[in-house]
Amino acid sequence: MRSQPPRLLAATLLAVLTATSLQAAGAAAAADYERVLNGTFDSGAADPWWAGAGVTNRVTGGELCAAVTGGTTNPWDALIGQNGVPFETGQSYTFSFDAHATTAQPITAAAGESVSPYRGIASQQFTLSPTKQRFTFTFTSTLDFPDAGNGQVAFQLGGQAADNTICVDNVSVVGGVKPPGGVNPNPTRKVQVDLVGYVPGLPKRATLVSTATTPQTWTLKNSAGATVATGQSTPKGADATSGDSVHQIDFSSFDTAGTGYTLSVGEDSSFPFDISADPIKKLRYDSLAFFYHQRSGTPIEAQYVGDEYSRPAGHINVAPNQGDNNVPCRADLACGYTLDVRGGWYDAGDHGKYVVNGGIAAWQLLNSYERATRVGDASAFRDGTLAIPEKTNGVPDLLDEARWEVDFLLKMQAPDGMAHHKIHDANWTALPTRPELDDQPRRLSATSTAATLNLAAVAAQASRLWKGIDATYSATLLTAARKAYTAAKANPAKIADPNDGTGGGAYSDSTVSDEFYWAASELYATTGDSAYRTDVTASPHYKAAGLTRAGFYWGGTAPLGDITLALAPNGLPAADVTAIKSAFATVADQHLTAMAGMGYAAPYDNSTDGYVWGSNSAVLNNAQVLALAHDFTGAAKYRDGVFEALHYVLGRNPLSTSYVAGYGDQAMRNAHHRFWANQNDPTLPIAPPGSLSGGPNSALQDPVAQRLLAGCPQQKCWVDDIGAYSVNEVAVNWNSALAWVSGWAAEKSGTTAPKPDCEVGFTAGRWNDGLSAQVKITNTGTTAWTSWKLAFAFPGTQKVTAGWSATWSQTGRDVTATSMPWNGQVQPGKSVHIGFNGSGTGTDPTGFTINGKACKIA
User: Fold this and answer.
1) CA distances from residue 551 to 545, 554, 581, 583 in whole angstroms, order as listed
2) What's the pLDDT tens digit per position in 391-437?
3) Which residues have C-beta within 8 Å of that of residue 842, sequence separation ≥ 6?
């Protein structure tokens, strides 16, 4: 995820004027502005330097060393370089660098244009020897390339018969009179809206950028240009996070569905948008399609993604891949075994696969399904809803997609029960590099406590969800989860190496008490075992003690345990479960209070670290907190807060940009990704619809962002550039947040939440160790049932011993009752009565579904 690809400097560079003749008389005096990024390679990474065909870049000993394949004809047949270098017409520049070669040979240093017609600015040839030398030449630019433009510097290394290695260091291009960066390159509007749409019946708000201190008149027009509503804005003043002076526009009173609406103030008009629930319902599935695109170890087939995005399988031991079927540990670990770790999802824009990122992503998909079965509508994820190969196997498609990663997590378990932290290339690959063309050796990093607890948590969660689908697989998952949890308790402080960042991110996490709480919560919810219950209730994170506005992420997972304990039936005291649910409402209220004062409302706490890497995922994870607060309380204000978060992500932000590819007239295209790399190779695609950009990052942690965004206000620290990996990468744990929230929002779209079409009444008589229950099922919908299946979960130790008027079954705490031939037909408004006798103790079930849909409790 940290390499910049080539834009070839054409042979025309050989025809440009030499350095001597380019020292034009009378050129304006140059300032000491450095134009090249990462010319010293002190970070250990090559970014944003790229390598052309037949060249492999490596940073070794603080130098960029290029291994060049021999047999090329021309100097420009082998290249290394950097794009986006700003030049100013008529200004003087000094190009200097250190270099040496294994075998003496000439090279050409050049400046020019990175795209057709590949105009040259300057070039000069130097002869390298095995001894490092300093080279310098001066030229005056005849072309003008702004920041993020098509300016380029490159070294032409070809034209030699034999292989060679050329190393460069301290590369510098100094000159010009305009300081690089400081100007946001994204075109913006003064009227900021959700570029996709607003759901009928819900609040509709926009932001006006204006220094006016009095209300401004706004006009809403339909696609034909006719005015359909007008009103006055509300001045809010300076917004520090965005750097804008803003007004709020509320046009909620207009609620007519349609497409192509625009909102105007004076001569300023918004991008077009819809008033419709359709886009969010489509996003529910596009955001999930991201995971099929990211699958490793299987071909991505055109029948599911189209020709543009199809590709062969990556990392299956087909040359040039070295494959994932027998991956050893890093040489310094000497673990003594290899693992078959084929499958899983590529984590982000590179080819690494990480247990801690994959863990939270898989959990979020599984939780989306479990939440829907408990309190929502799981039919949205039934078999056949996603475009994936498993769409006709009888299993809900959301579970199928999650299983692709869950199976990989199982493969990362070492013989001792611990889980390896990650697996990726031995070195960073160039960008672009299609997965099937990656020739890097693959290596396992050390096992870690955090990764092991991720495995334990997700395997236990998945075991619970697969009990009624595949009992054998469920048992396999639970065995792995128990083994991992036991291993983690025996190794409670095995922290991932924070310096293990070559070829893949380190993902070190020095605090794992949150992972212990999460894993114990999942195991307890699945098994009811007293040992796990003890670990849950003894944790400092119990009862949502760690839930704050900062939310949760891969390194802070305690709230995931809280969510499970609040949703999945368990034997905890009812007062404790109520306390967990109340904590979600408390934090949700804090978000809403803060959002009310923002120019661009988003549930995000920037008070400590500003906007961080992956800020959009933080916005959406906090939106999940708001969504659950709505589930737990029914309060509409929390539902509205979720949609405000989506409006921010989809365009109501200071950059007038939808951070979701394919959604809106100005949407992210150029994600940092080795296959979706159209910006650097026109034969490759842009990011597919439903892919989420990481979003603003005020720390500017990559060279491209540092060049382009110096001095940016926090919410404007973003650029749609493939090289800006700290702001524009994609990742599975970011898209899982989008998938959870968009799935929830699709379910809730409309003026009110969907009305249940069933009602269940449950009454039970009890004695010392038993009960007799009567269940009344009512069809409150408008369509007759031809058959029905009731599902619920016991919160305690209850077991069904005998039932009547239905076919009863029980797996763990989960109970189902299926209609008999004589009572399956239930007309609207009619009821059917069933019942059972049971043993054990516990309170009444609190959630019921009929045919997968949540029911009202009578």
Assistant:
1) 12, 11, 15, 12
2) 999 999 999 999 999 999 999 999 999 999 999 999 888 888 999 99
3) 571, 794, 795, 796, 797, 798
Q: Which residues contact 190 (CB under 8 A, 6 or more apart)?
A: 208, 209, 210, 265, 268
Residue type, 179: P
In sign, the C-alpha dihedral spanning 401, 732, 184, 656 is positive
Q: Which helix (H) or strand (E) holds 620?
A: helix 615-633
Q: How far is C-alpha 563 from the geometric centre of its chain's CA atoms?
A: 20
CA distances 553 to 556, 607, 616, Å, are 5, 17, 11
Report how far apart the first and last C-alpha atoms of the chain are (Å, whole number): 54
12-51 burial string, b = 16+ CB within 10 Å, else e?
ebbebbebeebeeeebeebeebebbbbbebeeebbbbbbb
Burial of 844 (0-12, 13-18, 19+ CB in 10 A): middle
Give the type of residue at 751: T
Could you give the CA distance from residue 638 to residue 446 in angstroms, rounded to a whole number?
Answer: 42
Element holding 745 (H helix, E strand) = helix 732-748
Residue 529 is among the residues annotated as catalytic for this protein: no
Token pair listed for 85: 């270098």
CB 120 within 8 A of CB 19: no
Tokens representing residue 97 in the block: 């660098």
**Is 720 part of the annotated catalytic residue set?**
yes
Full 3-state SS string of 306-334: CHHHCECCCCCCCCCCCCCCCEEECCCCC
Alpha-carbon span 532 to 420, nearest angstrom: 23
> pLDDT tens, 424-438?
999 888 888 999 999
Place of tokens 């040992």: 531
- The one catalytic residue in 88, 377, 401, 729 is 729
832 forms bridges with which residues in the sheet? 777
**What pLDDT is recorded for position 606?**
94
Catalytic residue among 438, 509, 720, 721: 720
Residues 693, 287 contacting (CB under 8 angstroms): no
Q: How far apart are CA 371 and CA 720, in angstroms?
A: 34
Q: In what order do the strands lie in the sheet with 234-239?
A: 191-192, 205-209, 244-250, 234-239
Rounded to an integer, what distance in angstroms lies between the CA atom of residue 602 and that of residue 668? 19
**Ranges under pLDDT 50 in the chain:** 1-30, 751-754
Decide if 370 contacts 465 (C-beta within 8 A): yes
- The phi, psi pair for 399, rounded to 5°, reads -70, -40
In the prediction, which pLDDT does 179 show?
A: 78
Task: Give the per-residue pLDDT at 600.
Answer: 98
Amino acid at 183: V
